[in-house]
Design a protein that fits this description.
Order of helices and strands of chain B: EEEHEEHEHHHHEHEHEEHH
Radius of gyration of chain A: 21 Å
CATH class of chain A: Mainly Alpha
Number of strands of chain B: 10
Structural class of chain B: alpha/beta
Distance between the termini of chain B: 40 Å
Order of helices and strands of chain A: HHHHHHHH
Oligomer: heterodimer
Number of domains of chain A: 1
Number of strands of chain A: 0
Strand content of chain A: under 5%
Largest sheet of chain B: 6 strands, mixed
Structural class of chain A: mainly alpha
Largest sheet of chain A: none
Bound molecules: adenosine-5'-diphosphate, magnesium ion
CATH architecture of chain A: Orthogonal Bundle
CATH superfamily of chain A: MetI-like
Helix content of chain B: 25-40%
Strand content of chain B: 15-25%
């Protein structure tokens, strides 16, 4: 007989893996994405071409493939095996999401009319002042909906890490199906819904905060 | 001495020469109307004055001092340009107000940033800010928007946004204020209020360069008219001379076509 508390404990342990992966990925890929954006918008042509090709490859191949490549690549190619599966998962996720974020940032920045920069310039502002005082908030407002979508996708994508052996929540629940229990599987669904419900509310608030102006 | 002198100004975009050697000067307190068909290079000329384009050749002098010389690369450093462009103010056809700031904030932002590095600001931030805000509110009053200080651009419609843009340009007290077709993006019934504001500035002897398609307005408000065509100044003179007694055939044709419409 499987006790309810053991099921819950097992699901919570799995969830912790998802949450760790989620927060670390978000924290690292958001700034890394900005670096990639700088590359893909650079005036230096080779750098721009290189960055855009990189983004194209990352976005054009499955995250699942990237997970395997990061886990096995270093060992099989360079004789330096990945010591931790979790680290491998983090690296793959961060690179993958940074590539997506960078494109969202780029779209946001490019959507700001040239006149906004020029108005700042003729008023004697520096490039840095123009970016931080004029452009940035407009970009944030424009990209919040698409960033929100990506973040919600990320919560669900974290479960993909099971393919390289991260004991995430669905894997935990799956162990119970082998013992004839479907309940835990449904429960994981509820976990995700709760998480994304909270995220949706948070994003809604953020959007509302920027409602006072229109871009 | 002229407040503004433009000498042999040329601008080329790749193979296209848009300005082919522009010369003119402007006295302090004068309003210059710049007229000509679309594509003749008027916007490009204003953009050169404001350093939004780098002229290929020529010089720009303000108060007798060379602030731009195409043959002197030292004058093209970002810092130098930022300093020199403050001689000019610019009012764009599309207003280009900052959407996340109120009317007052739009007007004061640049001044606040300029004063942030001063010793006075570091000592007495509050007093400096207050002075800037008072001045901003006063300027919005001048353009008839005292009751709209805290409105965001999207809450203003019609003529007011452009009037905010004018106040914003005035805030930095430029020597020469440039207007690029300030009423072209407005519905015809709204042009009047903006033109009235510019007329008021002319009455107070603001030095201005105004690109406009409003010929009647140009004739009334300007002290000097420049007719441009295909990147050259075809004719210049007093409004009476240019509008009533054009010497050049091209000017005559342009005016005939305009007034026939
Ligand atoms: N950034 C640019 N690159 C290439 N050509 C330009 C650019 N800006 C303006 N032009 C060209 O310069 C000419 C003059 O344009 P403009 O100065 O806008 O004239 P106007 O304001 O009198 O209508 C036009 O033929 C226009 O296409
Ligand atoms: Mg134009």
């Amino acid at each position: 007989m499987i006790s309810l508390s053991s099921i819950i404990a097992s699901l919570n342990a799995g969830l912790l893996e998802n949450l760790k992966l989620f927060f670390i990925t978000l924290l690292l890929s958001a700034p890394l994405g900005l670096v990639i954006t700088l590359g893909s918008m650079s005036k230096i042509k080779p750098l721009r071409a290189l960055t855009r090709t990189f983004v194209w490859i990352i976005r054009g191949t499955p995250l699942m493939l990237q997970l395997f490549v990061v886990l096995y690549g270093p060992g099989l190619l360079f004789g330096m095996p990945m010591k931790s599966r979790f680290t491998a998962a983090v690296i793959a996720f961060v690179i993958n999401y940074a590539a997506y974020f960078s494109e969202i940032y780029r779209g946001g920045i490019e959507s700001i009319p040239k006149g906004q920069y020029e108005a700042g310039q003729v008023l004697g502002m520096t490039k840095v002042q123009i970016f931080f005082k004029v452009i940035l908030l407009q970009v944030i407002k424009r990209i919040t909906p698409s960033m929100g979508n990506e973040v919600i996708t990320l919560t669900k994508d974290t479960s993909l890490a099971r393919v390289i052996g991260i004991p995430e929540i669905i894997m935990s629940a799956d162990r119970f199906t082998k013992k004839g229990l479907i309940g835990p599987l449904f429960a994981t669904g509820l976990y995700f819904l709760a998480m994304n419900g909270a995220l949706t509310i948070l994003l809604g608030r953020l959007e509302k905060k920027m409602d006072y102006f229109k871009v | 001495m002229a407040i503004l002198e433009v000498k042999g100004l040329k601008k080329r975009f790749d193979s296209l020469e848009v300005l082919k050697g522009i010369d003119f000067s402007l006295e302090k307190g004068e309003a210059l109307a710049l007229i000509g068909v679309s594509g003749s290079g008027k916007t490009t000329l204003l953009r050169c004055l404001n350093f939004l384009e780098v002229p290929t050749e020529g010089q720009i002098l303000v108060n007798g001092q060379v602030i731009f010389d195409a043959s002197n690369p030292a004058m093209l450093s970002e810092k130098e340009i930022r300093h020199n462009r403050l001689h000019f103010g610019m009012v764009f056809q599309q207003f280009n107000l900052f959407p996340q700031y109120t009317a007052l904030q739009n007007v004061t932002l640049a001044q606040e940033l300029l004063e942030k590095d001063t010793a006075e600001y570091k000592q007495n931030k509050k007093a400096v800010m207050e002075r800037i805000h008072e001045r901003g509110a006063e300027l919005l009053g001048t353009v008839g928007l005292s009751d709209k200080l805290d409105y965001y651009p999207h809450q203003l419609s019609g003529g007011p946004p452009q009037r905010v843009a004018i106040a914003r340009a005035l805030m930095l007290e430029p020597d020469i204020l440039c207007f690029d077709e300030p009423t072209s993006a407005l519905d015809p019934e709204l042009t009047g209020e903006v033109l009235k504001v510019i007329r008021g500035l002319a009455d107070r002897n603001t030095t201005m360069v105004i690109v406009t398609h409003e010929m009647k307005f140009a004739r009334d408000v300007s002290d000097k008219v420049l007719f441009m065509d295909q990147g050259v100044v075809v004719e210049s003179g007093s409004p009476q001379e240019v509008f009533e007694n054009p010497k050049e055939e091209r000017t005559r044709q342009f005016l005939e076509r305009y007034f026939a419409e």
